[in-house]
Amino acid sequence: LRYPWADAKAALQAMAADRPELEAVQVTYVNPETGVDAQNNLGFYALMLRPGQTLRLPARSPSCVFHQIEGSVDVAVEGASTFTLAEADTCCAPGYTAVTLANTSTTEPAFIFIADESPLHRKLGVYEVRG
What whole-number distance in Å separates Cα of residue 82 and Cα of residue 119? Predict the structure, then answer.
């Protein structure tokens, strides 16, 4: 399966324009033939943060990897560290930790690729969200 970034970015921008009330502007990469996760064990997502936006992700059972595609974002991992990601930077957060993402630009959106173990956790019956 192939998922061109230009298509994902266009979908995020259209969603942000059409649905300004959405707190999180995110697309999930799925198999277009089945509608299920693109892989059985890993979930993949593209997230857009509006200019100046801060988004708190709840603590969930799967660990997450964040890869900065465009822009710059501060990633604060609860009880650990804060990282400033520029384009092509990557960091991760362990499971069961809340993460706060903050777009460092007040004029441009930021785009992040996220990978996590949600599909595997759901299959094993251990997926959990803690507020």
Answer: 27
CB 12 within 8 A of CB 111: yes
> Which pLDDT belongs to residue 1?
73
pTM: 0.94
CA 34 to chain centre: 22
Encoded tokens for 107: 């004029």
Query: What pLDDT shows up at residue 2?
Result: 85
Give strand ranges (E) for the chain: 25-28, 43-49, 54-57, 59-60, 64-70, 73-77, 82-85, 90-93, 99-103, 110-116, 129-130
Q: CA–CA separation, 18 vs 106, rounded Å? A: 20
pLDDT of residue 49: 98
Query: Are the CB atoms for 117 and 63 separated by under 8 Å?
Result: yes
- CA gap 116, 42 in Å, rounded: 6
**Which H or E element spans position 13?**
helix 5-18
pLDDT at site 80? 78
